[in-house]
Amino acid sequence: MGGKLSPSLANIFVHMLEESIVQDYIDRGIIISYQRYVDDVAIILKKGFKFEILEKFNHFDPGLKWTIENFENNKLVFLDTTITIENGNLELYQYRKPSASECLTNYKYGISPKSYKTSLITGEVYRAYNCTTSPKALDDALTNLERILKNNLYPTKIISEKISEIKNRKF
């Protein structure tokens, strides 16, 4: 963790695990959906195979310990997203850890070019868009983003113009 090579090595390692273990379960129709970001994995699979797959993951390299997070009350947090089951459908909502800092580059006092500050808005708007599946969830995420940006002294006009510009381009 924290080293310059860590993300690349994790990517290579997990790719080897995928070729060795995951692909067989996908080919057999046991893994229905497999999503990964570096070494964080979300898997939807048929009942009865969870512990078998976990055991194979954990035996792939004895120095690593994989864990399982289960849905609780039809919710599961994965990275920046809360995944829910609503009326039989998976829905996504943006998630921020309660301990997450809401400190961003301060618009008024941050020592960086204005273009970096407006790019920060763009990145956060796309993050909200990519972490949500419904217009209401997106609106909630953007409302929260506006609040955070205002707390970091971003002018309301710049916030609303940038969000409108991105929405008008259909993201």
Topology:
Layout: H1 6-27, E1 31-37, E2 40-45, H2 50-60, E3 75-78, E4 81-86, E5 89-94, H3 114-130, H4 135-151, H5 156-168
Antiparallel strand pairs: 1-2, 3-4, 4-5
Helix pairs in contact: 3-4, 3-5, 4-5
Concise overview:
Helices cover 47% and strands 17% of the residues. By secondary structure, the protein is of the alpha+beta class. The protein folds into two domains: 6-60, no CATH class; 75-168, no CATH class.
Detailed description of the structure:
With 171 residues, this protein is α+β, with helices and mostly antiparallel strands. The chain folds into 2 domains: 55 residues, no CATH class; 94 residues, no CATH class. The chain is 47% helix and 17% strand. Helix 3 runs antiparallel to helix 4 and helix 4 runs antiparallel to helix 5. The model has no long low-confidence stretch (mean pLDDT 94).
The average pLDDT is: 94
What is the number of domains? 2
Question: Residue share in helices?
Answer: 40-55%
Q: Can you count the helices?
A: 5
The strands making up the biggest β-sheet line up spatially as 3-4-5
Low-confidence stretches: none
Q: How many strands, what sense, and barrel or not for the largest sheet? A: 3 strands, antiparallel
Query: Radius of gyration, Cα only, in angstroms?
Result: 20 Å
Q: Shape, please?
A: globular
Distance between the termini: 33 Å
Number of strands: 5
The sequence of SSEs as H and E is HEEHEEEHHH
The proportion of strand residues reads: 15-25%
Label the structural class.
alpha+beta
